[in-house]
């Protein structure tokens, strides 16, 4: 157990990450002195500064605040880091060499989880959307919640929600086995596609880690599993398991899905109740499946039918998850965080469904050398479904280059006749706005820094 009562300050190495920033903001709002390092300025770091956090972008000890650099009592401060930070980072090395108390982000989140009724959402894709949907359902009800999200909710313009409730929604991250620190009351598992093989080696080992996560659910708790992966999930003793999905066999299911011009309508069925004619204005049938999981848990927590009906209608989505920036006849621009072949497949399917019959141009930035190596065939196959593709260099994140692994590995496997390899600095200059119908930017790296310039160019030249 970590005793936070006697702590004065928290320092976050990698404070600009989506998970780290939520924790930093949580402790800043709790009255702690919060500071941190990240390698570049972003909308997230600027928001943290607005909330009285100190952020530096230089890996230099001279920029450490005095409380953390000259602390006479190191027990008064806690250092938090993410495994994505390279071992040679000078600031982290200083803390390690000088006897500071250092924790992984997952350990701090685990401490918070042990003191609340945690609703944890896991899965190789879909977890950010589902956790944001669940938090929205609870927040818009008499139940309320707090939430640590893996994306920026467009309803609340934040990845941290604070509330007066015993429930806390947490995204359960499988990277580095972080989710094994959580102690959920209820857990959702959305998907088990092979990912993070640099950590797990193979899919079977990854699935084993997910089942270990399920084993962390409290006795008497609940497990909600996508019906497509139920056969791979081991249900712990003392835990009730339910399935969700769009098929008739699922315990919680959505049926009678219809699309009008501006929204979907559907019915939700649980083992004990039916909610008819829900209206949902967010694109993609996959998101009705996501909402099915979120509604199931919200009902378990006591959210009423009328509260669910209103919240579903008002859901605005998550920034960088099917984030529609422009939507006009003859010109649309969508940004998405997808970085795994299965995520991209779902994204492209939703794009084709929503913008039926239109020409789709995709800009893809691969994320991680190891993921590119492991899934080059899958990336090539799904990108070939686009009408035109621009490939950017690999975003390395926490990794060093792997010999022979570049974006050309994907490029050379693609069969499309309309494909280009460009540098990130070529965008948006190389884009011919007059030839764009539907533009899709995809990736989990720093491709997000192109979104505003692309949108500005399209609006300036076409609108």
Could you explain how this protein is built, in words?
With 463 residues, the protein is of the alpha/beta class. It folds into 3 domains: 9-105, 3-Layer(aba) Sandwich (Rossmann fold), CATH 3.40.50.720; 116-314, 3-Layer(aba) Sandwich (UDP-N-acetylmuramoyl-L-alanine:D-glutamate ligase), CATH 3.40.1190.10; 323-462, Protein-Tyrosine Phosphatase, Chain A (Alpha-Beta Complex). Helix content is 31%, strand content 24%. It has helices spanning 18-29, 43-50, 66-69, 90-97, 105-114, 127-139, 197-200, 203-214, 285-300, 305-314, 341-354, 369-383, 408-411, 451-462; strands at residues 9-13, 33-37, 54-56, 77-81, 102-104, 117-122, 146-153, 158-161, 167-171, 186-189, 222-226, 240-245, 252-259, 264-269, 274-280, 323-328, 331-336, 360-364, 388-391, 419-421, 438-442. The strands form 3 sheets. Strands 8-7-9-6-10-11-12-13-14-15 form a 10-stranded mixed sheet, with helices on both faces. The protein has a 6-stranded mixed sheet with strand order 16-17-21-18-19-20, sandwiched between helices. Strand 4, helix 4 and strand 5 (102-104) form a beta-alpha-beta unit. Helix 6 (127-139) crosses helix 9. The radius of gyration is 22 Å and the shape is globular. The N and C termini lie far apart (56 Å). The model has no long low-confidence stretch (mean pLDDT 93).
């Amino acid at each position: 157990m970590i005793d936070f009562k006697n702590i004065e300050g928290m320092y976050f190495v990698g404070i600009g990450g989506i998970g780290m920033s939520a924790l930093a903001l949580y402790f800043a709002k709790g009255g702690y002195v919060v500071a941190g390092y990240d390698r570049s300025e972003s909308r997230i770091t600027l928001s943290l500064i607005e909330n009285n956090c100190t952020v530096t972008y230089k890996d230099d000890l001279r920029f450490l605040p005095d409380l953390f650099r000259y602390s006479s009592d190191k027990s008064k401060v806690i250092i938090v880091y993410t495994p994505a930070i390279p071992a040679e980072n000078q600031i982290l090395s200083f803390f390690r060499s000088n006897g500071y108390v250092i924790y992984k982000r997952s350990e701090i989140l685990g401490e918070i989880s042990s003191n609340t009724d945690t609703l944890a959402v896991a899965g190789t894709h879909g977890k950010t959307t589902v956790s944001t949907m669940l938090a929205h359902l609870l927040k818009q009800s008499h139940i309320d919640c707090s939430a640590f999200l893996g994306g920026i909710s467009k309803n609340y313009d934040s990845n941290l929600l604070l509330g007066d409730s015993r429930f806390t929604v947490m995204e359960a991250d499988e990277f580095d086995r972080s989710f094994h620190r959580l102690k959920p009351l209820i857990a959702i598992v959305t998907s088990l596609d092979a990912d993070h093989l640099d950590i797990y080696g193979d899919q079977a080992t990854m699935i084993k880690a997910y089942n270990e996560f399920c084993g962390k659910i409290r006795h008497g708790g609940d497990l909600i599993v996508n019906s497509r992966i139920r056969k791979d999930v081991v249900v712990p003793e003392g835990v009730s398991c339910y399935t969700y999905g769009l098929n008739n066999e699922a315990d919680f299911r959505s049926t009678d899905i219809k699309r009008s011009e501006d929204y979907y309508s559907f019915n939700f069925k649980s083992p004990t109740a039916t909610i008819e004619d829900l209206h949902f204005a967010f694109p993609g049938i996959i998101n009705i499946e996501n909402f099915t999981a979120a509604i199931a848990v919200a009902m378990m927590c006591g959210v009423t039918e009328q509260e669910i009906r209103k919240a579903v209608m008002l859901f605005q989505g998550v920034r960088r998850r099917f984030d529609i920036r422009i939507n006009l006849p003859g010109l649309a621009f969508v940004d998405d965080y997808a970085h795994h072949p299965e995520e991209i497949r779902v994204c492209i399917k939703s794009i084709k469904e929503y913008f039926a019959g239109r020409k789709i141009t995709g800009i893809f930035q691969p994320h991680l050398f190891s993921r590119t190596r492991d899934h080059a065939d899958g990336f090539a196959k799904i990108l070939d479904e686009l009408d035109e593709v621009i490939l950017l260099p690999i975003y390395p994140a926490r990794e060093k280059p792997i010999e022979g692994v570049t974006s050309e590995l994907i490029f050379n496997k693609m069969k499309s006749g309309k494909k280009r390899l460009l540098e990130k600095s070529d965008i948006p200059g190389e884009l011919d706005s007059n030839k764009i119908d539907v533009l899709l930017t995809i990736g989990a790296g720093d491709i997000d820094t192109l979104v505003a310039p692309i949108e500005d160019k399209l609006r300036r030249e076409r609108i």
